[in-house]
Amino acid sequence: MPPTQAIGPTPSPGRGGSLHRFANPGRFLRLTGRLMPWLWTLAIAVTAAGAAWALLFSPADWQQGETVRIMYVHVPMAWLAMGGYLGLGILSLMSLIWRHPLADLTARELSPVGAAVTALCLATGSLWGKPMWGTWWVWDARLTSVLVLFFLWLGHAALVRAFDDPERGARAGAILALVGLVNLPIVKFSVDWWNTLHQPASVTRVAAPGMHVDMLYPLLTCALGFTLLFAAVVLARTRAAVMERRIRALETARARRLDVPA
Amino acid sequence: MTPHLWFVTVAWMLAGIVFAALAVAAALRHRAAEARLKVLDPRAGRDAA
């Protein structure tokens, strides 16, 4: 949206009106300002507990040995890369259908963080693959589709910043994000649809998880911790973006006042 | 330290460094925006706190 709308009236609610209550920048900053210290504290505490549990107290795998401890960081990054992209798709829908101004800003701030966690997923997967498979990389369906997901995140981050008019950039980014959603089921089911070197799902399969609770619980704790960290970073970036938009609006208004002859 | 533990160490360090960098960058950006907003509009500065 143009910067001058940042301090203007809240858009007419219409359908999805309850969501527009949060379109007011002042209200958003007040609500999230109270939430942020708690979110950071909880995120750091849960991630620290999960890391200690995963690295010190969970057992080594009978086949993989100590290398299995990469799983506690690799799997949460993979879940965040996919779950975050689903979030980007929902924000894009909100942006295109309801023109929700915070959805645009949040999507813009989400994509670099999403790209970072997807890069971490690929890097930690490589670090796990080398000792277990004997190679850093193979062009199998799972690894390739996650690489495509990484490029989608990067493409969105670049596209929304490529226009002089932020609203046009947000719309182009939203369309790209929605088209890219088709890649999510490909990532998820690639291990079932094709013969891959990557193992099939073991935690999220419909039957009982194929993992002992001594490994499952620290994995879920790490996943929760990293998810809270991810949310805290995205929320902090969105708060900064809201304030920067208000700064631009105030500076533009001040410059216009100075331009008017007395 | 076994060779496999090196892979574990590098993986966890990468995650720690990336998340720390993201958090510090967000905090610095947030602080700079908050300070500028307080100068331009003290009422908005109170909202942001």
Please, could you describe this protein's structure?
The complex is a heterodimer of chains A (262) and B (49). Chain A is mainly alpha-helical and 262 residues long. Chain A has a single domain, classed as Four Helix Bundle (Hemerythrin (Met), subunit A). Chain A has 8 helices and no strands. In chain A, helix 3 packs across helix 8 and helix 5 runs antiparallel to helix 7. Chain A is globular and about 80 Å long. Chain A starts with 16 loop residues before the first helix and ends with a helix. The relative contact order of chain A is 0.17. By secondary structure, chain B is mainly alpha-helical. Chain B has one domain. Chain B has 2 helices and no strands. In chain B, helix 1 packs antiparallel against helix 2. Chain B is rod-shaped. The N and C termini of chain B lie far apart (47 Å). At the A-B interface, helix 2, helix 3, helix 4 and helix 8 of A face helix 1 and helix 2 of B.
Give the key terms.
heterodimer; A: 262 residues; mainly alpha; Four Helix Bundle (Hemerythrin (Met), subunit A); 8 helices; 73% helix; B: rod-shaped
Q: Can you tell me the CATH topology of chain A?
A: Four Helix Bundle (Hemerythrin (Met), subunit A)
Overall pLDDT of chain A: 86
Largest sheet of chain B: none
CATH class of chain A: Mainly Alpha
Counting DSSP E segments of at least 2 residues, the number of strands of chain A comes to: 0
Strand content of chain A: under 5%
**Total number of helices of chain A:** 8
Name the poorly predicted regions of chain A. 1-16
CATH-defined architecture of chain A? Up-down Bundle
Helix content of chain A: over 70%
Portion in helices of chain B: over 70%
Domain count of chain A: 1
Structural class label of chain B: mainly alpha
How would you describe the shape of chain A?
Answer: globular
Distance linking N and C termini of chain A: 31 Å
Average pLDDT reading of chain B: 85
Quaternary: heterodimer
Query: What summary fits the major beta sheet of chain A?
Result: none
Q: Give helix and strand order of chain B, one letter per element, not per position.
A: HH
Helix-strand pattern of chain A = HHHHHHHH
What is the C-alpha radius of gyration of chain B, as a whole number of Å?
19 Å
